[in-house]
Give the backbone structure.
Amino acid sequence: MKRPNPFALFFSVLLLLGVTPSALQSCAGAAARSNALLPAMQTAWPAVRAGVERELAVEASDVAAAALAAADEALAAGLPLQVAAVDWPLLERIADQDVARRLAAGSIGDGVAASLRERLARFTDARTTFVGAR
Amino acid sequence: MNLDQFQAALATAIRQTGAQLTSQSADVAAYARQRAAHLATIVGQAGFEEALVAERDAVLLFAGLGAVRLGDASDAQLLGLIHGALLAGAAAV
C-alpha cells in the first residue's frame, strides 16, 4: 500500500484546521436571512396584510383567512419551512386585488398603486429568497 | 419629500426593525434614489402617505435581499475553499 506523502498530509490537515472553525462559525446566508431579511419582511407584512383584510371584508374567504393566520404565525416564528408552507400566491393575489379595487374607486392614485405593487413585488422576492427558493 | 428626508426615514426604519441592514451600499442607495424619485412625482396623489410607507418597506426588503445575496456568495466561497482542502487531503492519502 502506498504511504501518504507526509508533507501533503501535514499541509491538508493544516488547511482543514484553518478552514473548519470559520466554516462552523459561518453560514452567512442563513444569518442574513434571519437578521436582515426576516425583520424587513416583518416590517412590511402589516401593511400587506391590511390590504388582504380589506379585500376579505368585501369578499370573505375561509381559505384566505386561514392562509392569513398561517402567514402571521410563520412570520412571527421566522422558520423557513413554516414560511414555505403558507399559501403566499393566494394572499399576494388578494393584496393586488385590493390595490386594483382602490385604484378603480379613486381612493388611491396610480402612482400610489405603483408604490403598493412595488412593495408587494419586493415582498414576493423576499419570501421566496427567505425559504431558499431563489 | 426629498431624497434626504426619505433616506432619514429609511435610516429610522432600519434602526426600529433592529435588522442588520444598511442603506449605504451602492445598489441599495441607487434603489432608494429611484424610489424617492418616484415618490417625488406622486406628491399630492390620494394615498400618498401610504405610498411613503410602501416605498420605505420596499427599500428595506431590497436591502435585506442584498444582504442575503452577499451572505450566500460568502458561503459559496467558503464551501469552495473547504472542497479544495478536502481534495488536497484526498490526494495526499
Remarks:
- The mean pLDDT of chain B is 82.
- DSSP finds three helices and no strands in chain B.
- The first helix of chain B runs from residue 3 to 17.
- The radius of gyration of chain B is 20 Å.
